[in-house]
Specification:
The protein is 28% helix and 22% strand. Strand 7 and strand 8 form a beta hairpin. The longest helix is centred in the N-terminal third of the chain and has 14 residues. The relative contact order is 0.17.
Length: 297
């Protein structure tokens, strides 16, 4: 990452004097990001936050958090979701306007660049993995196959093939994250090339919690075969083997905000949400804790 931008970030991302652990979500972006944080900072996955779960919990989709037995010993860091408060790495848009509340502990290119609902199309449309790859100065001298795996996560390549978004893809990869090699890789390939990579490694797979243990259909072994050879770091993706215990439930809400909310004093922002993000220009998703578990049982 460009040094002037790195200097503007909260310093906890490089803090080895305190004990932290990571919160994993349900996809490869979060899992590989947690792998990076384990390798570089020594932070283990001790919590999961799984979106829109149904089985065994509710007849309607809800969000579920689960922890290992010793998770409370260290402070948590959200990985690839926009916590309303507290430390997190993410890549979402969280503000309606520049006047809105800003989580000062969040590390997010869209906060760095002041992207809100008003300039939504100028957003960082890349992954949390690329954010961390840049922030911690990981390997750039890799084969196209390895770089394409990273670019396919969260479809970070996709905006390049639309004239409206190509300048912003280049801006973030080159000017913000200082990954010109990754941008050059996109220039050499077609959308079909990236779709082949997505299918080859099952990068659209999900992580689930079954009887207290994490499972996934992402082809972790194939990804490891590439990254362990191509990177200087020991980036071996592993799902935690510890048992996780469900401890909280959240209502997963989606609201249409078309044409509304020019000011920041709106009901949605005032709600006590755990996390929130604008998933489209006029759509906000947020999760609010269900205080009584009986409501979803």
């Amino acid at each position: 990452m460009k040094e002037n931008l790195k200097n503007s970030l909260p310093t906890w991302y490089n803090d080895k004097t305190n004990n932290y652990h990571t919160i994993l979500t349900d996809d490869i972006d979060s899992l590989l990001s947690c792998t990076i944080l384990k390798e570089v900072m020594g932070w283990d996955i001790k919590e999961v936050f799984l979106l829109r779960q149904v089985a065994n919990y509710s007849d309607i989709p809800i969000d579920v958090s689960a922890k290992t037995k010793n998770a409370t010993v260290t402070e948590e860091i959200g990985v690839d979701f926009a916590k309303y408060q507290g430390k997190c790495f993410d890549n979402h848009i969280t503000r309606f306007s520049e006047k809105d509340y800003k989580n000062e502990e969040s590390i997010n290119p869209n906060l760095i660049e002041d992207v809100t609902k008003k300039n939504y199309t100028e957003k960082y449309a890349g992954s949390t993995v690329l954010l961390l790859w840049s922030l911690y100065g990981l390997s750039k001298n890799m084969t196209d196959e390895a770089i394409m795996i990273l670019l396919t996560i969260d479809s970070s390549f996709l905006g390049y093939y639309d004239d409206r978004y190509r300048p912003y893809i280049k801006h973030y990869l080159v000017d913000v994250l200082d990954l010109p090699e990754f941008y050059n890789c996109i220039e050499r390939h077609t959308q079909e090339d990236f779709k082949r990579i997505r299918n080859k490694y099952h990068l659209n797979g999900k992580i689930t919690l079954e009887n207290g243990y994490l499972k996934t259909n992402i082809d972790i072994d194939k990804i490891n075969d590439v990254l362990l050879w191509e990177t200087a770091e020991v980036l071996e993706i592993k799902l935690p083997k510890e048992e996780f215990f469900v401890d909280k439930f959240f209502m997963s809400e989606i609201e249409d905000i078309y044409g509304l909310y020019a000011e920041c004093d709106r009901d949605i922002i005032k709600k006590e949400q755990y996390c929130h993000a604008l998933t489209r220009t006029n759509t906000v998703n947020y999760s609010i804790e269900i205080k009584e578990k009986d409501e979803v049982e």
